[in-house]
Amino acid sequence: MKVADLMTIEVITVGRESSLKEAARRMIEAGISGLVVTDAAGGIVGVITEADFVKAESGRRAARRARLLRWFGNGEPALPSTERLVGDVMTAAVITLTPDADHAAAARLMRKAGIKRIPIVDEDGRLVGIVSRSDILRAFARPDADIVDEIEHHIIGDVLWIDPKRVEIRSVEGNVTLDGRLETKSDATLLEDLVRRVDGVVSVAASLTWEIDNSKLEMVPPPPANRPLSWR
């Protein structure tokens, strides 16, 4: 499954010149833990997450304490507190994917990078969507009935042109079993391989037999097209 099938198209964003208070308000109202930071053209310039707010707050408290110490120790006036902007605390290095990326690749990237969401961009680098961990989990938590239906009608019927009555399909929590007798060994091998690629499939146990072992058939090359005739 492609991330284009899972991603959220209506992405809540924020500008780098927005205040942290505005960014926090948008996150709370939407019930999300991070925002994509974009420029006027829709290009991604960073992301801001709850972790960035925590770092910003700890930094603010440290700076305020330093100002107070200077004021009490030297009699100097405390520096005025300025409102911090999104661009001051955001993470500028952003990992992105394109809509045609596979959902499994997105899951591996999230796990490796330790992130919860990945912005999706078009070929020009403009934001077109976002995919989160919960979106990826929906693909892996696919109902067994949907898995069986895709195997029976799409893989067996539309792709391999095999009579669905030849194969008994069962799926329990994504663990698929295949039983039946097919015409050729290559059909059995290909069916098992394609089923492993179906979204939501965790494992495949195949007990398939075949009428013809076409893997052992010798391929005899045709005679040369311009072979000269022999006259006797």
Briefly characterize the structure.
The chain is an alpha/beta fold and 232 residues long.
Essential attributes:
232 residues, alpha/beta, CBS-domain, Histidine-containing Protein, Chain: A, 2 domains, three-stranded mixed β-sheet, 8 strands
Q: Regions with pLDDT < 50 over 5+ consecutive residues?
A: 65-69, 77-81
Number of H- or I-type helical stretches: 7
Name of the CATH architecture of the largest domain:
Roll
Shape from CA axes?
elongated
Structural classification:
alpha/beta
> What's the order of the H and E elements?
EHEEHHHEEHHEEHE
What's the CATH H-level superfamily name of the largest domain? CBS-domain
Question: How would you sum up this structure, described in words?
Answer:
The chain has helices at residues 20-30, 50-74, 86-89, 103-113, 133-140, 144-159, 185-196; strands spanning 13-15, 34-38, 44-49, 117-121, 127-132, 167-172, 175-184, 203-212. It has 232 residues and is an alpha/beta fold. It folds into two domains: 3-139, CBS-domain; 144-216, Histidine-containing Protein, Chain: A (2-Layer Sandwich), CATH 3.30.1340. The strands form three sheets. A three-stranded mixed β-sheet has the order 1-2-3. β7, α7 and β8 (203-212) form a beta-alpha-beta unit. The model is unreliable at 65-69 and 77-81 (pLDDT under 50).
